[in-house]
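Q: Structure tokens for this one, please.
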Amino acid sequence: MKKKKEGIKLNINLSNRVFYTLIVIGILAIVSVGVWAYGTIDITKIRVYKSANNQQIPGVTETKITFQTENFDTLGEFSDSRFTCIEEGYYDIYAHALVQELGDLKSWNLYIYKNEREIARTQWISPGAGSINNPTIDAKTLIYLEEGDYIEIYCLHTQTNNRVIYSNEDMTYVEINRLN
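A: Here is the predicted structure, written as tokens:
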């Protein structure tokens, strides 16, 4: 007499199968919508600001602006007041500075540099001494960056004596975001 091999029987009824299948589909849908809506976590998002003392800017000299504090730097790409790209793509770059007023028809320039070359500039010209106390200047650009490209922020004013860029989280800062 032959012995029958007995297998393991799973006793899962149809309603349990449907229930567990719906749970798995629901979890996959939630994860998919989350990735679509919020993007991946590993994307450049940076906000840094000048937090040390106000920075003295010599007259008629392009000067690199220093940034000491990070609000966030998701991939650790900002160091020594320089952003170094680790993933190619399109980047939105915005720089903002609160500066000391200037004399009649003198100007402040705020520059965004890529690999030591100017790619964006904003110029503010004083309408007259005392007419605007400590103006703000902004520079913005959208640019394609490759791995290893770097961004720095510079300024220049046309007054002959030193002027100041003010430091504080809401006064002088840079934001850099890679677009999906």
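A few notes: Residues 58 and 162 are 4 Å apart (CA to CA). The first strand starts at residue 45 and ends at 49.
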